[in-house]
Description:
The chain has 135 residues and is an alpha+beta fold. It has four helices and seven strands; from the N terminus they run E-H-E-E-E-H-E-H-E-H-E.
Amino acid sequence: MFDTKIAIVVREDLAAWQKLNVTAFLTSGVVGSDAGLLGERYEDAAGNLYTPLAIQPMIVLSADAKTIKTIYRRALERSARLSLYIEDMFKTGHDAANRAAVRQYEPDEMSVVGLALREDKKTVDKITKGAKMHP
């Protein structure tokens, strides 16, 4: 049904709250990069309205620190549209501080704890090779 695939990869050694936090932030990056990813509002039988959700399924994968670094490198090499979360972002409290945290590092120096991408299916599969479905 979709030519593209959305994958979120989180580092497997994070605490549960960190994995959920990273996944939520990365999802917002993917959806925020393409307004067409949001469907229409939901409505129940009583007429209550709910906000739209993404129209496309997403997979959540996990990887160890070494594998996620490899996945990050592959994504950069292929110029993939990428959402990124680094370890320093757990210490910040707002968007500007998050951007400043990322800005201080060269790509090889970043402690990546999560990333998300939406590209054609084969590209996503090649980039995320080595990650496994999150338990």
